[in-house]
Amino acid sequence: YELEPRAEPRPAVVFFHGGGLIYGTPLQDMVWARQIAEQGYVTFLAGYRLFEQFDGTNPWPAQLEDAQQAIQWVRAHADEYNVDPERVCAIGHSAGGHLAGLVGTTETTASPDPELVGISSRVDCVVTLSGDADLMVPYENSMWTSVFNDMFGGTVEEVPEVWQAASPAHNIDEDTVPFLIIHGNRDGDVPVEMARNLADALAEAGVEYVFAEVPAGHMDIRNPEATGKLQEAFLAYRLHPEE
Predict the structure, then answer these.
(1) Nearest-angstrom CA–CA distance, 24 and 30
(2) Mean pLDDT over residues 191-219, rounded?
(3) Of 135, 139, 146, 126, which Cα lies nearest the Cα of 187?
(4) Taking the model in full, what pTM does it have?
(5) Residue 166 burial (CB < 10 Å; 0-12/13-18/19+)?
(6) Among 49, 50, 132, 150, which is most buried by a count of CB atoms within 10 Å?
């Protein structure tokens, strides 16, 4: 989505949808993406392979690989969509925030698509709402623990390195990009401790971030009236859509 064509390229915002990496569709963020586009961005809804718990299809890291290729694809097609490839942000709620966090803390220039080889998958900033930022923190709902056990090929005790590598909070380095972290302290699905740990890791590494812990549940913070102005301010400060 783009508000209106103009001669100068616009910054891009790439949306990753929620659904625990096992369900959901990019179109569930359609209204959100249109609202952000109206603020002066080109917005994209990115899909990724979903893990099939019943037969083990698409185990991790298929989801991260697809998210990384989505960012590479946006940059590869920057001219076509009037995008500035040096101003690309990832945004997502829940599992989408998890993937957005990982494309801000990890990087690859490899790809099975020859067109994308050599293009960086690391975004220029991240907005994560209720994201799974530190998978070393236990879930209250054992269903999600079971899902990740199957997706990662073992429990956190059996393959801790996989769980850590899949956690934005455990991938912070000097190249990590600025973050806006929004999380509800009444979240019964993704513990707020995950967001707190991510904020602490960013602070320790000296990475710029904004952390908003709000009195809300897992889905409440998607309400534009609750956190829309904060998202708008962060994106404007980091991406300068007026330029």
Answers:
(1) 12
(2) 97
(3) 139
(4) 0.97
(5) buried
(6) 132
